[in-house]
């Protein structure tokens, strides 16, 4: 008897085949997932092992660098010293190098900060050259004058910084004495001192312009008045006010007229050259013990 397939029979025959296909696909997916998990687990394990090995290696290298006597400071090179004694620098180095002298562990920044506390130090660069060499390069401040501050006289640099006097070098310095500088390290004081020293440097530059070399005749430079400079020459007692510009011209005017002025005014105390076409003088009368001011024409 011939069997007739109905729609229901066809559906039942196809249904198991579709289920099997999905099961096979699901099995393949699970297989791939397991393999991927295993592969990433192996990679992660290898990475952790490599990182651990490198960390251990770095620790071992650091330990060798920190504790090997091969890296102890054996050579100290100090450059740029003129006013600063070598013992001062070596003392600062020994303070930082305690309790050991290992160059790798040596705190370069701390040494640099300590050296900058020395008044004569302007800039400092500290370097290490492995295995055992420490190099210190110092730029010293350049003294440009003496400054009378309080009861003492100190050297002063081009930035208005007061410097310690080196007795061995002091007698070799040939500078005029500046009056009017303030003591202290407050921002306002430092700013005013810098303005005064700038005016002083302009004066020196103007007096020496063209090879004149007139600054050699200066004994004192008075900077008490803001924006104005007065001077006393070597072997003289007269205070000469030069104002804030035209220094060489006014200075030469005084040199040309000083002998005649002193002859005419025997108690001459000061000469003011800030005014055009006239010289204002101040005399001291010992009998009256008071000041008298006179104006003298520029032609005498």
Structural notes for this entry:
By secondary structure, the protein is α/β, with parallel strands linked by helices. It folds into three domains: 1-67; 70-140, Ubiquitin-like (UB roll); 143-297, Rossmann fold, CATH 3.40.50. 41% of the residues lie in helices and 25% in strands. It has helices spanning 7-67, 86-97, 108-115, 167-170, 187-207, 247-264; strands spanning 75-79, 121-129, 133-140, 143-149, 152-157, 162-163, 177-179, 218-222, 229-233, 239-243, 268-272, 278-285, 290-297. Strands 6-5-4-7-8-9-10-11-12-13 form a ten-stranded mixed sheet, with helices on one face. Strands 1-3-2 form a three-stranded mixed sheet. Helix 2 packs antiparallel against helix 3. The longest helix is centred in the first third of the chain and has 61 residues, at 7-67. The radius of gyration is 43 Å and the shape is elongated. Mean pLDDT is 82; it is low at 288-292.
**Average residue pLDDT:** 82
Share of residues in strands: 25-35%
Uncertain stretches of 5 or more adjacent residues: 288-292
Q: If you compute it from the alpha carbons, what radius of gyration comes out, rounded to the nearest whole angstrom?
A: 43 Å
N-to-C CA distance: 158 Å
- Overall spatial form: elongated
Strands across the major sheet, in which order?
6-5-4-7-8-9-10-11-12-13
Structural class determined from secondary elements: alpha/beta
How many individual domains? 3
CATH C-level label of the largest domain: Alpha Beta
Tally of strands:
13
Q: Quick one: biggest sheet?
A: 10 strands, mixed
**Count of DSSP-assigned helices:** 6
N-to-C series of helices and strands: HEHHEEEEEHEHEEEHEEE
Q: Approximately how much helix is present in the residues?
A: 40-55%
CATH fold name of the largest domain, please?
Answer: Rossmann fold
Looking at the overall shape, the CATH architecture of the largest domain is: 3-Layer(aba) Sandwich
């Amino acid at each position: 008897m011939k069997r007739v397939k109905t729609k229901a029979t066809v559906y039942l025959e196809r249904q198991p085949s579709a289920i099997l296909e999905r099961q096979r696909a699901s099995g393949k997916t699970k297989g791939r997932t397991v393999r991927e998990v295993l592969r990433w687990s192996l990679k992660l394990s290898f990475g952790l092992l490599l990182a651990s090995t490198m960390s251990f290696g770095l620790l071992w290298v650091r330990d060798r660098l920190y504790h090997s006597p091969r890296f102890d400071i054996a050579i100290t090179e100090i450059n740029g010293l003129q006013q600063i004694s070598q013992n001062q620098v070596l003392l600062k180095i020994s303070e930082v190098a305690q309790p050991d002298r290992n160059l790798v562990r040596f705190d370069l920044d701390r040494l640099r900060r300590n050296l900058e506390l020395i008044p004569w130090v302007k800039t400092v660069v500290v370097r290490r050259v492995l295995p055992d060499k420490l190099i210190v390069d110092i730029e010293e401040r350049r003294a440009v004058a003496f400054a009378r501050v309080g009861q003492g006289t100190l050297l002063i640099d081009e930035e208005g910084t007061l410097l310690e006097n080196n007795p061995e070098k002091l007698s070799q310095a040939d500078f005029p004495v500046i009056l009017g500088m303030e003591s202290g390290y407050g921002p306002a004081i430092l700013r005013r001192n810098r303005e005064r020293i700038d005016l002083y440097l302009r004066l020196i530059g103007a007096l020496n312009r063209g090879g004149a070399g007139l600054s050699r005749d200066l004994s004192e430079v008075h900077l008490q008045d803001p924006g104005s400079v007065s001077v006393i020459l070597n072997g003289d007692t007269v205070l000469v006010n030069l104002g804030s510009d035209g220094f060489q011209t006014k200075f030469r005017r005084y040199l040309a007229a000083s002998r005649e002025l002193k002859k005419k005014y025997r108690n001459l105390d000061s000469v003011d050259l800030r005014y055009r076409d006239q010289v204002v003088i101040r005399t001291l009368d010992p009998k009256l013990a008071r000041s008298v001011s006179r104006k003298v024409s520029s032609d005498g």
